[in-house]
Amino acid sequence: MDTCIFKKDSPFIVALLASAEVAHSERLDAQTDRAAALLADADQLSQLCVACFWASLEVEEGREVRGTVTICSPDSVRMARVFTHPVPVSVPNLVALLTASPRTPLAVHGGPEGLSIWGMLDAEPEGLLRLRLSGNGILLASRERRVLALLNQGVVSIPVAADETSLAQLVARTLGKERFLEQHGNAPARFIRVVATMLRHGHGGALVLVPPEDSSWRAGVSFRFCFDEESGRLLQHSVHDFETGMDETLRGYEDLVSGRASCTSLTGLREQYDAVNYLRTLSESLFRRVGDLGLIDGAVVMDMDLMLHGFGAKLLFGPEEFAVTTLNAVTGRVREHVPLSELGGMRHQSAARFVQANRETDVFVVSQDGRLSMMSWSERTQTVAVVQNMEHFIWEYRTF
């Protein structure tokens, strides 16, 4: 199978080569830079993808093999642990190293000396091409938060929505939620950080998003644990302080560069930057902690303004059966009149029923096997719409 999927003229390899051409319009010397040599060599890219594919099917120490392979050379990174002797790329070597380093990318390059793993990346520069082993037989290629190609169940897909922005636009266009996108343009990125944590801890979970101006949804939720208002707004205030501080810091930097501020302001600007960086770290930590609340059964409930209402929540709904519309986030395929039973287990079906009864709400559902779906009411189709396969777009968040 792999020889058909990863021929040098296959869509998967072509997508990698095209990305490399765009990223390296100022061509690196493939004679001296072994990463550049690999990115320009369809045969070696094919060999690397084949090895990663077979490694993804293995089980080591009772665990499926997961992790990231990044194409780069030692002189292009600042923090890496370099092996004394480069390790040849092979399925056994990938399995062993990815088992030992599931969250730290392996560094690979090629060239006349062949494919080799030269070390592990502790700080990964932007713009590198990554191959992610993200499931049994699932291989994802990405660069700068853009998904280039996906192999899943023997099928190669070149995503119609390649990054977070285009994914949001695809959803809005298909489901008739353009107004929502205008009002909450940056909201998806924030909530993705929460569900990424649910994906990472492996228990799964559900994140229910409710409108801040309407409390009618409360009749459909039974909380096990609730927060008081001050505690519930902690994340909201942290994000606001970070964004405000960042805006002030950027203005101060622009004033300094333009000459509107003197060089004596440099020390103050550095202190301000350190304070903003602390607020950024705090906000990211709080997002992760919200995601960890999904470790117990029941949903986490927040509103669109980042007010955290509670967790361990049971969603209340009627027993009625109905059909939904599904949207594949990778291929863009829309299916109508899909029975609830085809969505998955009770967590997915409960979320769909809740949205059917509370049409101003949205629910992210994470399954234990690593699938991420979003349930939302679509005015265009007048049904509950289920956006599936979203997990393939958030690998960068999952490494935090």
Helix content: 25-40%
Number of helical elements: 13
- What count of domains describes the coordinates? 2
Calculate the mean pLDDT score and round it: 83
CATH class of the largest domain: Alpha Beta
Count of strand segments: 20
Query: What distance separates the N and C termini?
Result: 34 Å
CATH topology assignment of the largest domain: YojJ-like (1
Structural class, from helix and strand content? alpha+beta
**The CATH fourth-level homologous superfamily of the largest domain:** DNA integrity scanning protein, DisA, N-terminal domain
Q: What is the radius of gyration computed over CA atoms, rounded to a whole number of angstroms?
A: 23 Å
What does this structure look like?
It is a single chain. This protein has 400 residues and is α+β, with helices and mostly antiparallel strands. It has helices at 2-5, 11-23, 34-39, 42-56, 91-100, 164-175, 178-183, 187-201, 229-232, 234-258, 266-292, 346-357, 395-398; strands at 59-60, 63-64, 67-71, 79-88, 106-109, 116-123, 129-135, 138-143, 146-152, 155-157, 205-210, 221-222, 225-226, 299-303, 308-315, 323-328, 334-339, 362-366, 372-378, 383-388. The strands form three sheets. Strands 11, 12, 13, 14, 15, 16, 17, 18, 19 and 20 form a ten-stranded mixed sheet that branches. The chain is globular and about 65 Å long.
What would the keywords be for this entry?
ten-stranded mixed β-sheet; 400 residues; alpha+beta; 20 strands; single chain; 2 domains; globular; YojJ-like (1; 27% strand; eight-stranded mixed β-sheet; 38% helix
